[in-house]
Amino acid sequence: MRVFVLYSLFFVILPLFSQNTGKIQLVGSVESPDIRGLGITYCANPFKDSEFNRTSYKDIFRKGDVYVEEIERATFQVALLSIPGSRMMPVFMTPGDSVSFIVKRDKDGRPFFEFSGENASHYNYSFQEERAVRNWPKLYKKGNDILQYKLAVKEYRDDQLAFLENYCRQNFVSDEFYAYAKASINNRYVCNLYFPVANKQISKIEIPDGYFDDNLCVTNSLSELYISALWYLHVYDYTDDIYNNFDTVYNHIVNDFEGNERAYLMSAMIGFFASKNSQSYSKQLLNAINQASRYTQNKECLKYIEKAKMFYTLLNRPIPGNILENTFLIEYNTKSKVSLKEVLQKYKGKAIYIDFWASWCGPCKKDISQSEEAKAYLKEKDIVYLYIGRKEKSEKWVDASKQLGITENQYMEENLGKSLLAEYFKIGLIPRYVLLNKEHKVFNANAPRPIPSQRVDLEKEIGGVTLVK
What we know:
Elements: H1 2-13, E1 23-30, E2 39-42, E3 56-59, E4 61-63, E5 66-72, E6 77-82, E7 89-93, E8 98-105, E9 111-117, H2 120-132, H3 146-170, H4 175-198, H5 226-236, H6 246-256, H7 259-276, H8 282-295, H9 299-312, H10 321-326, E10 328-331, E11 337-339, H11 340-346, E12 352-357, H12 362-369, H13 372-380, E13 384-389, H14 394-404, E14 410-413, H15 420-425, E15 432-436, E16 442-444, H16 455-465
């Protein structure tokens, strides 16, 4: 009876939200009382979420038992729907869509959205596909049979394609949705094939002939993993060491591609290099940024490049005075409040490696557990290892610091809402590491992690910061 009443309520409410064909409206409720709150993440462009390219997450507005989400959109949009404790699922949205939904649990207790209304099949697809195709390939690990891994990846792709074709026979979908869904399956296949090499689980010379298909291609900038697949397919294998061959890679993109494919590849390259934040290719990168408008007028690409430039040009600059003076930290040993300016003055004339972490952050604690060798190396180079806890509760920060054995040079940022320091360094995800030189100018705003797998990169950066000029 309650479900019937809710559906009736939706059909009364939906017309109220359907006056503007440029709007996309979602209206619905949650069947399981233990599910509290729903979220949606809008993907403004196909570039990877990074320090200078934040995706836009928001809670879906709730009024009583009804959740309502509206956006103005003149073109197709992909968004990620989220339920607390569950994986985000993509939905393909068309301007003018007006759909209702109920969040349910399947027989195994997994929550999912069930949509009704015009174009509801575009929204239901990912939730149904995830429950129907469950032979996800296991991550490749060093020493495994690479050809067996490919068979598993190919079988997963083929099962996804079979599900898509069957789904489209049983449900009405637009040509645009079909192209998006098929491209997303293909992109994941490309990324899965390249994953073992990209993550250094196997070297390229160990890959047997025929492992990579001859007809691989990447299409549809709305599709999932578009940029990653494009990069793997056309750039990753072009040179053995991308980050030490800036000119080679850049010239390949500029000369061998055209149109939007070139625009996205060039933008992704600028983003990757800017995110790595090394000074070794500074002149070439800034030149590429300044020349970008010669090769594309794609607005989302140019906007992305401009944000990458803002992030990269933090290099060689001191942290602004207003941030130093208005960022307050609690010192672990004394529990006294000090400004970031006072902390840096304490280490005058010394380079500083800052570790932004939190007691609730699993990856942060994992890095800390592997950091002893890196800390000893930094100490040998007379570089201060400084911890700054973020978005912390004082008692949990104290307990975690003690448990992890990181009470020296340990501070917690006062939790007063928006952080000027985090905003300046564009810190969204942690752990995050920042390297300041002896003059406390930014040497790397996204420094290598203090773990064994990044030891070579870390030593290279430290070599640069300690170089006597």
